[in-house]
Amino acid sequence: MMSRNATSPQIVTFGDNDVDCYEAHGAMYPGGNALNVAVFARRAGADAAFIGAMADDPAGRHMSVALEREGVNITRLRRVAGRTAFCVIGNTASGEREFLRADLGVSIIAPNAGDLEMIARADAVHTGRSAHVEAHLSAFSNRARLSFDFADQTGVDYVDAIAPMCFLASFSGGSMTDAEVATLQAQVRKAGANWCLVTRGQNGAYLTGPDTDVGVPPAPAEIVDTLGAGDSFIARVLTGLLRGEDPRALMQAAAIMAGETCGQRGGFGHPAPIDIDQSHAMPIGLIHAHAAELADRARKRSAETGVPAK
Q1: What percent of the chain lies above the pLDDT cut of 90?
Q2: Dihedral Cα 160, 141, 72, 34, nearest 10 deg
Q3: Domains of the chain, with CATH numbers?
Q4: What angle do CA 258, 219, 249 make, to 5 degrees?
């Protein structure tokens, strides 16, 4: 099914954002799945908007300026008292990237009535596990096609709860075998998702959907940093599906975009000197539990304001 504007589909992304801080280089870059997808969708030709929350601090101001320079609509961006989210990234002895500590700051929010109105005018809305908005996915999918990034979450109960609402369900499957990919995609499609995308880094990516089963190898690339590669792949696939592009052609285009993303540090560039308050940072292992607590608080505040769910 094509979008209402086959040339420039309208895509709204909701939720997570942060500055990714590379200690060894002294630089921070805009990031977060929802924010990255908005930028890459815009680069792919979509009319993209980002809904999220940042503080009025150096990190938040840097990200908002980067979004404006990329042509992303930020009219629904919230300026909230507190701290902009960040993640500190280091390197192991072997040179691999390592997520050290993070602060979610003000990034975990629930949608309000204005957000839902913008989503209802769009062709698709993208969010993901890191946004912790599972309680609001039905509100999203009732208003626009839902794209959801499951990341590495392939538990049967979680997938079966969310996949029926999805236009595009995406997974990061770098450690998955071919058989595991096929089993997951069959489960996701059986649950009701229109399309299922599994990205596997150097092992390529696979898309399955109506009368479609396409796999592509990674595009040749000079690997500088893989951060954001999966987000760029999702953005290009979603944009192509909304345009009604040939699945193999759009997958090849997505592989090229992901390869280009790997050729620079940070999700999509825009470095700035690190300027964050690390006093509230916590180990990565504690982040998702803390995010769930923040999401529950945001949901309760949203319920108190009477935001409609359908």
Answers
A1: 82
A2: -20
A3: 10-297 (3.40.1190.20)
A4: 85
